[in-house]
C-alpha cells in the first residue's frame, strides 16, 4: 500500500513538473528605444521652423529655404545638404512653386524620426479646370542636442545621412 502511495505521489509530481516545463519562458524586450520627452515648446518650435521654411518658398526665396535643410552624417552631426542634393531640391521647389500652403500634421516618433506633412497650392485653379493644383510633401524634423533641424524626408539617417534618391 505504501508503495502505491509513493508511486502515485511520484506520478503526480512528474505530471506537475512536465506541465510546468513545457511553458515558454517570458523574456522582457529591452530592445525598445525609450520614447523622447516632448514639451509644448517642441511642437511650437517645429511648427515655426516649418512655417519659416514654407514662407521662404512662398516668397520664392528658394536659396533660403534650401539652406534650412540638413541631414545627419555618419558621426551623427547635423550638416547642410551637399551641393548635389541642394540642386535637386531647387529643381523640385521651382517645379512646384508655393502660392499657398497648409501644415497638415506633425508627428513625433523619436528625436531623429519625426515627420511634418504639408500641402502646397502651386497654381491658381480656374473654374472648370480638372487638373489638381495641390500636392503634399513631407519633411523630417530632428532634435539634436536640444536643437530642432529640418531634413529631407528621404534622408536615411540610420545609414550615415545619405539620401535614398538615386539619379
UniProtKB/TrEMBL annotation:
Keyword Signal in annotation: yes
Protein name: Lipoprotein
Keywords recorded for this protein, A-Z: Signal
Range of residues in the leader sequence: 1-18
Amino acid at each position: 500500500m505504501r508503495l502505491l502511495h509513493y508511486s502515485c505521489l511520484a506520478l503526480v509530481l512528474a505530471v506537475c513538473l512536465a506541465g510546468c516545463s513545457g511553458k515558454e519562458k517570458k523574456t522582457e524586450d529591452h530592445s525598445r528605444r525609450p520614447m523622447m520627452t516632448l514639451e509644448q515648446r517642441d511642437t511650437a518650435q517645429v511648427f515655426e521652423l516649418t512655417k519659416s521654411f514654407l514662407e521662404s518658398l512662398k516668397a520664392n526665396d528658394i536659396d533660403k529655404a534650401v539652406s534650412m535643410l540638413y541631414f545627419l552624417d555618419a558621426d551623427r552631426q547635423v550638416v547642410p545638404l551637399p551641393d548635389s542634393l541642394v540642386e535637386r531640391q531647387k529643381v523640385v521647389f521651382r517645379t512646384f512653386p508655393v502660392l499657398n500652403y497648409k501644415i497638415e500634421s506633425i508627428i513625433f516618433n523619436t528625436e531623429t524620426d519625426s515627420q511634418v506633412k504639408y500641402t502646397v497650392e502651386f497654381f491658381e485653379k480656374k473654374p472648370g479646370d480638372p487638373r489638381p493644383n495641390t500636392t503634399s510633401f513631407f519633411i523630417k524634423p530632428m532634435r539634436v542636442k536640444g536643437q530642432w533641424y529640418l531634413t529631407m524626408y528621404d534622408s536615411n539617417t540610420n545609414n550615415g545621412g545619405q539620401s535614398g534618391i538615386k539619379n
